[in-house]
Amino acid sequence: MEIFKLNIPNKKEYVISARLAATSVAGIHGYDIEKVDDIRLAVGEACNNVVLHGRGSKSIDIVIQVEEKFMKISVSDQGEGFIHGQISSPTPEDYMGSGLGLYIIDSLMDEMVVESEQEKGTTIHMIKNR
Amino acid sequence: MEIFKLNIPNKKEYVISARLAATSVAGIHGYDIEKVDDIRLAVGEACNNVVLHGRGSKSIDIVIQVEEKFMKISVSDQGEGFIHGQISSPTPEDYMGSGLGLYIIDSLMDEMVVESEQEKGTTIHMIKNR
Amino acid sequence: MAVKIRYLFSERGDRWEVKIMGEVDIHSTPEVKEKLELILDEREKGMIINAEELDYIDSTGLGMLIGIVKRLKQNDLELVLAKPQPSVLKLFRITGLDKVIRIREE
Amino acid sequence: MAVKIRYLFSERGDRWEVKIMGEVDIHSTPEVKEKLELILDEREKGMIINAEELDYIDSTGLGMLIGIVKRLKQNDLELVLAKPQPSVLKLFRITGLDKVIRIREE
Ligand SMILES: Nc1ncnc2c1ncn2[C@@H]1O[C@H](COP(=O)(O)OP(=O)(O)O)[C@@H](O)[C@H]1O
Ligand SMILES: Nc1ncnc2c1ncn2[C@@H]1O[C@H](COP(=O)(O)OP(=O)(O)O)[C@@H](O)[C@H]1O
Question: How far apart, in whole angstroms, are the C-alpha atoms of residue B50 and residue A24?
Answer without folding.
Answer: 19
